[in-house]
Every structure is written in structure tokens, then in C-alpha cells.
Write a structure and sequence with these properties.
CATH superfamily of the largest domain in chain B: DNA ligase/mRNA capping enzyme
Number of domains of chain A: 2
Low-confidence stretches of chain A: 1-16, 352-362
Oligomer: heterodimer
Number of domains of chain B: 3
Largest interface: A-B, 36 and 35 residues
Order of helices and strands of chain A: HEEEEEHEEEEEEHEHEHEEEHEHEHEH
Helix content of chain A: 10-25%
Number of helices of chain A: 9
Strand content of chain A: 15-25%
CATH topology of the largest domain in chain A: Metallo-beta-lactamase, Chain A
Number of helices of chain B: 20
Largest sheet of chain B: 7 strands, mixed
Structural class of chain A: alpha/beta
Radius of gyration of chain A: 21 Å
Strand order of the largest sheet of chain A: 7-8-9-10-11-18-19
Shape of chain B: globular
CATH architecture of the largest domain in chain A: 4-Layer Sandwich
Number of strands of chain B: 21
CATH architecture of the largest domain in chain B: 2-Layer Sandwich
Number of strands of chain A: 19
Mean pLDDT of chain A: 90
CATH class of the largest domain in chain B: Alpha Beta
Structural class of chain B: alpha+beta
Shape of chain A: globular
CATH topology of the largest domain in chain B: D-amino Acid Aminotransferase, Chain A, domain 1
Chain lengths: 362, 560
């Protein structure tokens, strides 16, 4: 329905009249690149997978060959074990490699440690699959980089103009003010264990909080991995086995669903906090029984999404997982060709994570 | 405004009473006059200005946003004020400098005087200056829809805590205070004397009773208490005093302090005395000395015009049960038994057929009293037994305390409704209880066409002890058949499940419930581990109770 790209070079011997959909197209397994012979973030096992970042809805086990950043490969190994793929290949930011008829280049996405946008170029068309991204500062990962392109594939997790994440540092201060006001209570912060938790810790350290921070068992492996990559998170302790009374006045990071579980009974009168972009909307916070919502997100907010779309200079926008309608409407009103990309299987990590069953010792 | 907004924001999520108190007190400590005074006024509902209509807010946002994006956002957020607060576009940079956001004082004082036509512009200016939370709080304030679960009492308690004062003291002086309460905060911070009430006939905040449970009696000594009938009328306070010109002022107040003098001109001549006084009592309609039912009294309520015929057919009467002040003396600190003696002397001296004394009930044990409650007529209520709603138990040594102090006054209604229902669904609680399944939906049996089935009739989340909560929580976890987010289906078969004895205050028809009935104040009275679910009550039982109740229920809606 749209005139999607400028008329391409008709001299091409292999693919005459090349269009963006011929380079990347949504299929059941995910975003498929036929001329390159791979899928991006496939949700089903495929022969060759190129993966943007380590969150479990994007990085799954069971593929033949996996191309990703070293950090993403390491995280997959931590989560799925050594045999998560037949072969793996690490690629650095800024590195470009040839796959079939296309070339692939990785750029930082600013989402979590090792997260990347993947630029796929074929002839004179460049498509950027950005995966999940944020343009806000985050000391735990490389900053987001704008990649000029013809087609920009954007997420839309927070694709409504009600989502403004504000300064994450203010939210950290809000948490610390609460700890100061309720020194006899424990503060439990629900945060996704890959990326969010480490960012919250880094924010607390930046705000001057230098006492030990406690971790739910499900957080430990990945957090220690962050530390091994040189990210300074200060002194961290396992909460397991710590006496209830000793947890008064402390901060503990836990997977979101653990914060309403039997597990919380080991804490003295806990204040339940939750670090997520969803916390901007009251009904969402209340549904979860959150007492201290912290608007801290790994995703771009509305202004971030629209500013990024502008900055890429792309004439065509494909919108995926989240509030596609509003963002497509915004693009169309700006005169950009835009369409929702009906990919299934990607969720919001804050909503997805389970701590491994009720009553799990962690 | 920003600080107040932060406070409201935090309070909106905090479930614990003590934590709410700490947050509010902390705010009062950290905030200057007069902002904190207006905050106290906002929390106690003492602010008065014309509220902005939702239509105005809608117009403001419509002029600033794309209608499709607004519709999608409103649909997602679900609350108009919140959607507008979040979506409000950042003001385009002003030429010189950003104006500071408005203070709460500025907002409140401006709104008091602002004309209707100036409101939209002013509101837009403030919205430009505030952040998301500030805008949300502002819109809640101007639309008059705060709903953050803070009672006036709680806000006053938090203020009292600022100066380590008793809330009781603050309640007593409250009717004479006005926003922004500079004199109050000065006193709380030890900078000034206690504020004095200059109203010649001030309202005294009323003392209320707790509903007594069967288990309470074990800890109570019958000889400590005086019992009276609980009359099904209107709680009222009759106050007389002299203004600065020496003229006598007489007023009648409802239990919430609303001035209802104008509705009862027939009672006023009896109350126009030389010396000031304050009586706590019940307004009743008496005909030939007999107390009429609430349905009859209802004819006198909420009338704009009180016609002579109405006055003649429904003569109003004050049944006095407490004397709070006499002459210049405040009697509220005295024990009830002493106040009662003074009241008896006062009423007999008054010797007016419009004002009589609430009779006491003689009893020597809880058993005697229980019998009297079951059959009031021979126990002294005589022909008035129909108008008796139950009993009041008042400690002989209780001072008159505003609010609902523990263990001082009890109400013991004649017919507490009780049914046996079956636990059907359980939901996680909030705050301290967020790891427990503490909200229970229960049902009773009915013949639903395809055989016997349970139909939900209500939901309760209190009435049980902490120990029982642990037991039910364990039962729920072990007997879950399905999960839906925070809700669990609990097994409820004729031979398998948990029977809950549920107590409640009354029933009403409801089209919102599948069963067609809704309960008032349902609570878990007892756990019936001994009872198989098939022996639980049936919907027909509730239908019968409803019939008996409905006349009274309809009437109660009109009550002050």
C-alpha cells in the first residue's frame, strides 16, 4: 500500500526491484532475512539467529548458529547452559560482517549490557532493527547510538504520549527518602534481574548510598556477571539466611513477582517498590499492590521514541511489540510511511519474569 | 504544590495507617505556613471553592493534543485527570525564565476568588508550570475528587503528632478553627497558647460506638457499664450559648457537624434557655408519648420547607443521653456516670415534654442484658419496643471522647445477620498482607437450572484473627483449582471446601451481583471447619432476610 522505498538499482543481478520487505519480513519464527539467510531474535529454533540482547523473549535457546555481542552470548550461556546453540560467534559494536547477500552491523541500543541494534544493508537500502532500546543515560551499558537508515524498526512498549520516564536519578532519591523515613522497615525493590536490577543499584550508588544492597537469589548470577564486566555496583550481599531483624532499613532487589510472594515474609514490614516504566500509570501500580512505584525503565518513553524516529531520518517506520497504534498514527501524521509489524512472542520483561515458583528458596 | 503533590502521590499507594500518619506528619514538619495549613484543609475536606467540571478539563486537553492519541491514552489510563496530567505537553520555552510552579496557598486562595470564565486560563497556566505528579494533584484538587483513602480524623491525628498532642484535644477545638490554621500549628510547635473557639454555640465532635462481638463480652465486666436502648432516630447535638451581644443562640447539629437547626423549628423554643448547654441525643418523632419508627421520622428529613401540617403530624422530640456542657463548664472530661447524673437533673429541671431522658436498662449480668435485648418490651421499652434498634453499652468511667475510641462505647444491635457461606475465590491482600490470600469471595447454594450450584453473594477481608488468616491462606494454597492473576479459585464442592460464618449489617437489592443481593459490611465471623459445604445456607435464606430488611434499608438512605 505504501511506496516503501526509492526505486532501487535495477541492474542488480540477484534481486531485481529490491524492496525493504524482500530484505526483512515478519514470519512465524520472527523477523526473517531471506537474502542473508538468518532470523533476528527468532522465537522458534532456526538455523541461523542474530540476536539483539539477552532478555529471554529475544534470546532463546535451541538455534543452530547464533551471532550476538559477547555479553549477550555470555548471558545466554548463564541462563541456558553451555549448549544453548550449536555454534556461536561474537560481534563487537561497530563491526560489520557479510551474511549471504546482506551485510550486518551492530550498534549499541542502550537497553541493557550488550544490547544492540542490528543494521542490515543490502544494495543501497539500510534497515535498522533496533530491538529494545532507550535513549536515556545508563551507567551499566553502552549509550544508545542513532543509526541513519531508510527503514527503522522500532519497539513501542511505551508508545503512548502518557509515558514520560523523567530522570531515573529522581526515582532513586525517592527510594532513599523512603528508606530514611521508615528505618525500621525493609525496602523490597521489584526489578527485572537482567539490566533493571543492576541499573537501580548503580543509580543508588550514584545517589550516594554506599551501604550493602541485598539480592534475591535469582538476581545473583547475572549481577555478578555485570560486576565481572567491570561495572561497579558496590557491596552486594545475598539475602538468603539473613535474620529478619537485620533487614530493617535495608534495600533488597528481587524479581517483580517475588515481591508479592511468601518469600516477602522474611522481611520486617516491607515497603514494596517496583522499578518499571509502567509505574507511571497508577492503575498498573495499584494492580500489583505496589506501595512505592519507581518510574525507571529500560525502554524509551514516548518522547524518546519519537525523537529517535526523527533522528534516524528513516522515511519508513515499522512498529512492533507494544502500543503500535499510537506510534503508527503519530508517524503517519508526520508524513512517514508506517505500519505495525505483527510479530508475536515478545513481551515486556517486567511483566514476564517469574521467580521460579512460589516458596522457592532464594 | 510540588511537595503536597508528592505527599498525595505517596499516600495514594500506602495502605498502612501508621505509615500514612508518618508521611503526613513528616510533611507538616517539613512544610511552612500557610501551605501546610491548606494541605490540612484539603485532607480534612475543609476547603471550599467551586469545583471545576470534567468538561472543562477535557476542553483544555483537546486544544493541545491530537484527538486520536488522546483517545488511545485515555482508554489506556482510564482516569481523565491522570491522562491529562501525563499527556499535558511541555510548555514552549518562555522568553525569559520559567515561572516557578504555584504554591498550594496560591492555588487555594486564587481558586476561592476566581471567576468561572477566568478558570480555564489560570488552570492551563498552572498545568504548564507543574510536573506530572503536580498536575495530577492539581486536577484532583480542583475537581474535588481526591479519593486517596485519608479520613479527616487521620489527617488531624497526623497534625496532633507534630506537637505530641492528643488528637482528642485537636478534635475538641476543631470546629472553631479555620484554614490555614496558623494558630493551630503555632500551638502544636509550642510557639503559642491553645487556640480558643469563639463560636457562641459550637459543635462538639461526637463520640461513636464500636459494634460489639460475642467474643468481646468475655473481657468486659458488666458492672463497669451502663446500658441504654439504642433508638432508631437521628443522632443530634443541641447547643445553646450567648453571642457577644448577649443574645442566646440555639443550634442543632447532625453527627457530622452539619447545622440542621432550620429543619426543626418546633424544637427550638424548648431549648432557648438562659444558660448555655450542650446535649447529645437522638431526634425522634413522638405521638402520644410513643416513639415512632424511623419510617415516620423520615418525613421530617431533608425538607426545604417545613409546613405547619408537617410540624403538627410529625412532632419532633429530643431524647437526651449525654450532657457535654452546662453553663461555662465543659463536662466532657467527667466520667459518664457523673455526666449522666447532671443530665438527669438538667432534664428534670427543664421539665419540657419535647425533651426527655434516655432511660437506662437495669441489669446485673450480660445474661440479663441479653434477654432484655431479645425482648425489649418487658425490660422497660414497653410500647416503644418497635423503635428499639438494639442497645448501647457505655463505660461508667468513660470521658466523652471524639471519634470512636476503643472499649468505651459499644453498640449491640438486635439482629446481627449471620449466614454460613462457602469460600469460592481468594485474592491477595495489600501492604502487609500482600503475601497472603486475605480477600475472600463467598457464595451460597441455589438451584441454578442445571442443579445445585454456589452463587457468589459477597466479599470480605476482615473479621478473622491473624492466626485464622494463616490457616485460611494455607487452605487456599493447598486447595486451588485455578489461578487468574492475583485471584485463586478455591475448591467449593458439596463435600469439599471451607464454610465461613459471615456476619453483615444488612442487605440490599443489587443488579451488579449475579445473586441479586448485596451485603453491607460483611465480615468473617467464624471459620466452620466442622461444617461440610453442602450444609451452608441457601440464597432463599438471604431473600427472606432481604424482604424483612428492605423497608428499613430504603429509609436509611435518606438519613443524615
Amino acid at each position: 500500500m505504501y511506496e516503501l522505498v526509492p526505486k532501487t538499482d535495477l541492474r542488480s543481478a540477484y534481486i531485481p526491484d529490491m524492496r525493504a520487505q524482500d530484505i526483512l519480513m515478519p514470519v512465524a519464527a520472527g523477523l526473517c532475512c531471506r537474502p542473508g539467510g538468518f532470523h533476528i531474535d527468532p522465537v522458534r529454533p532456526v538455523e541461523r539467529a542474530v540476536i539483539t540482547h539477552g532478555h529471554s523473549d529475544h534470546a532463546r535457546a535451541g538455534h543452530g548458529a547464533v551471532l550476538a555481542t559477547q555479553e549477550t552470548l555470555d548471558m545466554m550461556r548463564l541462563r541456558y547452559g553451555d549448549n544453548f546453540a550449536r555454534t556461536t560467534q561474537a560481534i563487537a559494536y561497530g563491526e560489520e560482517i557479510r551474511l549471504g547477500d546482506v551485510s550486518v552491523k551492530f550498534h549499541p541500543a542502550g537497553h541493557v549490557l550488550g544490547s544492540a541494534q542490528i543494521a542490515v544493508s543490502c544494495k543501497d537500502i539500510r534497515i535498522v532493527a533496533s530491538g529494545d532500546y532507550k535513549d536515556a543515560p545508563d551507567p551499566t551499558c553502552a549509550p544508545f547510538e542513532v543509526v541513519p537508515c531508510d527503514v527503522f524498526i522500532t519497539e513501542a512498549t511505551f508508545g503512548l504520549p502518557v509515558f514520560h520516564h523523567g530522570l531515573a536519578a529522581d526515582e532513586a532519591r525517592k527510594l532513599l527518602a523512603s528508606v530514611a523515613l521508615f528505618p525500621e522497615r525493609a525496602h523490597l525493590v521489584g526489578a527485572y534481574s537482567l539490566g533493571k536490577a543492576q541499573r537501580v543499584i548503580a543509580l543508588l550508588r550514584a545517589a550516594g548510598y554506599d551501604t550493602p544492597i541485598y539480592l534475591h537469589g535469582a538476581m545473583e548470577k547475572i549481577t555478578h556477571y555485570y560486576q565481572s564486566r567491570g561495572i561497579d555496583l558496590g557491596e552486594l550481599r545475598s539475602v538468603k539466611g539473613v535474620k529478619k531483624a537485620d533487614l530493617a532499613g535495608t534495600i533488597t532487589l528481587a524479581p517483580p513477582s517475588a515481591t508479592s510472594d511468601i518469600w516477602t515474609r522474611r522481611f520486617p514490614d516491607p515497603v514494596t517498590a517496583f522499578a518499571s516504566g509502567w509505574m507511571r500509570v497508577r492503575a498498573r501500580a495499584r494492580q500489583r499492590g505496589v506501595e512505592l512505584p519507581l518510574v525507571i525503565s529500560d525502554h524509551a518513553d514516548w518522547d524518546g521514541l519519537t525523537a529517535t524516529i526523527d533522528a534516524t531520518g528513516a522515511g519508513e517506520i515499522w512498529v512492533t511489540h507494544g502500543q503500535e497504534d499510537a506510534l503508527v498514527h503519530w508517524c503517519t501524521a508526520k508524513g512517514l510511511a508506517a505500519r505495525p509489524l505483527d510479530l508475536v512472542g515478545y513481551g515486556d520483561e517486567d511483566e514476564a519474569e517469574a521467580p521460579g515458583g512460589e516458596g522457592a528458596e532464594a | 504544590m510540588n511537595r503536597f503533590a508528592e505527599l498525595l502521590d505517596r499516600l495514594a499507594y500506602e495502605p498502612g495507617r501508621n505509615n500514612k500518619l508518618r508521611l503526613i506528619t513528616n510533611y507538616f514538619r517539613a512544610t511552612e505556613d500557610p501551605d501546610r495549613g491548606y494541605a490540612l484543609a484539603a485532607l480534612t475536606g475543609a476547603l471550599s471553592f467551586k469545583h471545576a467540571k470534567p468538561g472543562l478539563i477535557r476542553d483544555l486537553i483537546a486544544g493541545r493534543t491530537d484527538p486520536v492519541l488522546f483517545a488511545l491514552s485515555y482508554d489506556y489510563v482510564g482516569d481523565l485527570s491522570e491522562t491529562v496530567a501525563l499527556m499535558w505537553p511541555k510548555a514552549s520555552l518562555p522568553l525569559h525564565n520559567n515561572p516557578p510552579p504555584p504554591t498550594l496557598t496560591e492555588v487555594v486562595t486564587t481558586l476561592r476568588t476566581l471567576g468561572k470564565t477566568e478558570l480555564p486560563k489560570q488552570l492551563a497556566r498552572w498545568l504548564d508550570e507543574l510536573d506530572e505528579t503536580g498536575r495530577w494533584a492539581l486536577l484532583k484538587l480542583v475537581t474535588g475528587a481526591m479519593r486517596i483513602g485519608i479520613s479527616a480524623r487521620l489527617a488531624k491525628t497526623a497534625a496532633a503528632a507534630l506537637g505530641d498532642k492528643d488528637t482528642h484535644d485537636l478534635e475538641l477545638m476543631w470546629p472553631g478553627l479555620a484554614p490555614p490554621y496558623l494558630d493551630l500549628f503555632a500551638w502544636l510547635e509550642g510557639r503559642a497558647d491553645k487556640p480558643v473557639n469563639r463560636d457562641p454555640a459550637p459543635f462538639r465532635p461526637v463520640m461513636l460506638a464500636h459494634a460489639i462481638e460475642d467474643t468481646d463480652f468475655a473481657n468486659l465486666d458488666a458492672s463497669d457499664y451502663i446500658a441504654e436502648w439504642k433508638w432508631d432516630g437521628i443522632r443530634a447535638q443541641a447547643v445553646s450559648g450567648r453571642d457577644q451581644h448577649g443574645n442566646t443562640q440555639v443550634r442543632l447539629y447532625s453527627r457530622s457537624g452539619e447545622d440542621i437547626t432550620g429543619s426543626f423549628p418546633d424544637l427550638l423554643p424548648s431549648l432557648r434557655l438562659q444558660d448555655p448547654f450542650a446535649i447529645d441525643g437522638e431526634l425522634l418523632v413522638l405521638r402520644d408519648g410513643r416513639v415512632q419508627t424511623f419510617n415516620v421520622l423520615q418525613q421530617r428529613l431533608n425538607r426545604k420547607v417545613v409546613s405547619p401540617k408537617l410540624l403538627k403530624d410529625y412532632p419532633i422530640h429530643l431524647r437526651a443521653y449525654d450532657l457535654l456542657g452546662e453553663g461555662d463548664t465543659d463536662l466532657r472530661e467527667l466520667p459518664f456516670a457523673e455526666r449522666r447524673e447532671r443530665l438527669e437533673a438538667f432534664v428534670s429541671k427543664l421539665n419540657d415534654p419535647r425533651v426527655d431522658l434516655s432511660p437506662t436498662i437495669a441489669f446485673d449480668s450480660w445474661e440479663t442484658l441479653r434477654a432484655a435485648r431479645a425482648d425489649p418490651s418487658p425490660a422497660g421499652a414497653g410500647e416503644d419496643a418497635e423503635a428499639v434498634e438494639g442497645m448501647m453499652l457505655k463505660r461508667r468511667d468513660a470521658p466523652y471522647l471524639p471519634g470512636r475510641p476503643k472499649g468505651q462505647w459499644w453498640k449491640w444491635k438486635r439482629d446481627p445477620h449471620i449466614i454460613d457461606a462457602v469460600l469460592m475465590y481468594a485474592q491477595r491482600g495489600h501492604g502487609k498482607r500482600s503475601s497472603y490470600y486475605s480477600d475472600y469471595t463467598f457464595g451460597v447454594w441455589t438451584n441454578g437450572g442445571d442443579g445445585e450450584q454456589l452463587v457468589p453473594v459477597g466479599k470480605a477481608y476482615f473479621g478473622f484473627t491473624d492466626e485464622e488468616l494463616v490457616q485460611i491462606d494455607r487452605f487456599v494454597r493447598r486447595n486451588t483449582t485455578e489461578k487468574f492473576g492475583p485471584v485463586r479459585h478455591v475448591v467449593h464442592e458439596p463435600e469439599q471446601g471451607l464454610v465461613l460464618e459471615v456476619a453483615f449489617e444488612g442487605l440490599a437489592r443489587s443488579s451488579r451481583h449475579k445473586s441479586g443481593v448485596a451485603m453491607r459490611f460483611p465480615r468473617i465471623n467464624r471459620l466452620r471447619w466442622d461444617k461440610p459445604p453442602r450444609e451452608a445456607d441457601r440464597l432463599e435464606t438471604l431473600e427472606r432476610m432481604l424482604k424483612a430488611d428492605s423497608a428499613k434499608q430504603a429509609a436509611a438512605v435518606e438519613r443524615y
